[in-house]
Amino acid sequence: MTGIDPAEIDRGGALRHVTHKAVADAGFRQAVVWSPADVGRRYGLTTGEVAFLERELIPRLRRLPVPIEPADLPANLEPFDRILTAGDGPPSPSAGSG
To answer: What number is the average pLDDT over the span 66-94?
Structure first.
């Protein structure tokens, strides 16, 4: 990932909250897709988190069905959790510590 400082990504906090809300709520998803910087300001995302949202998460959010039925929510959240937890993006600031 170029242009994104891994130290700016806190995948356990506000970015995860915004992502989960966008998956669950189609109206909020539209706000995230069309105004990620505004959503980032409102939820206190760093510049790096907004960039990660734009580059890695929004393209996937656009492909979700509208609406997502409650029974289908866990299956639709899983790919986003995987990205936020580990492999598909830059490591979280706490990666490798412990």
So the answer is: 78
